[in-house]
Amino acid sequence: MGAMVSQLIRQGVNPARARRLVELRLSVDPDKPIPYAYVDYMANMVQGNLGTSMYYTEPVVDIIARALPWTLFVMSWSLFISFFLGIVVGALMAYWEGGKLDLGLTSWAVLMGSIPYYVMALLLLMFLSYRWGIFPTSGRQPTGIPVGFNWPYISGIIRHAALPVMSMLVASGFASLGMRGNSIRVLGEDYLRVARLRGLSDITISTQYVARNAILPMYTAFLISLGEMFGGSVVLEQIFSYRGLGWYMLSATYQRDYPLMMGMFTVLTVAVVLALLIADLTYSFVDPRVGGKENEAY
Predict the structure, then answer these.
(1) b or e along 34-43 (b: 16 or more beta carbons within 10 Å of the residue's beta carbon)?
(2) Inter-axis angle of helices 245-254 and 60-95, to 10 degrees?
(3) pLDDT in tens, 220-257
(4) Cα(207)–Cα(288) distance, rounded to whole angstroms?
(5) Residues with Cβ < 8 Å from 214, sequence gap 6 or more?
(6) What is the pTM assigned to this prediction?
(7) Which residue, 48, 91, 96, 204, is the most exposed by fewest CB within 10 angstroms?
(8) Domain ranges of the chain
């Protein structure tokens, strides 16, 4: 709280007025000790009051509500596509382990996994936008088109989100390698030998036995990535001037907009905690072996 007051005083604001402004922005008395001010802030947060932005002069909740759907749209699509691509490619690599296809796809996965997403974003922006003009260079929605449920507007949103989504697909490299390792481990299990002795087809074995068990460890990684995706949006949204949570978070940092920064960090923290909680509570349903209620047969 004191940093906010000091910042306003350095800008020429009267000390008494600076304290009053901070109190109005955060709905917290800056003269209170930090533990008490923290309790007041948490109480306001539970009621949906995250204060008022010092730079945008509007409620932080409104800014988050306006930016959150755009970040969710880009990051969720990139995450789903990355994991789907990783699962499919990883399964192919494991099925043809040691062959030319496995060698080629493994090289591709290692290459993709070694490229930072922001480097991929710059490369895509340079070639697909500035040089070839296939996609827009910045923004999150088309201009000059009426906002609504119409194809020109929807297609414009998709075109603006295409490059950010493609930039995050580098995560599919790690997903592919993880799926490959899981599948190879499952392929060595005894129950697969029994399935082959029963005369089951390769498709049945690969889908009902290998894939279902190899995907299980990916489930936790997927949920954790789902919670951490907001952190990855900070740099990405700055590169493409995509006004989502990450864009506003960095803007709040530049402007020393403490209420907005605190609100954004709260969203990040809650997202990660919820993702870990959901993973912990639901994994026993996905994999009954860890539920602790195994029935022993004698």
Answers:
(1) eeebeeebee
(2) 130
(3) 788 778 777 777 788 899 999 999 999 999 999 888 88
(4) 18
(5) 90, 91, 94, 179, 182, 183, 185, 186
(6) 0.82
(7) 48
(8) 2-46, 66-286
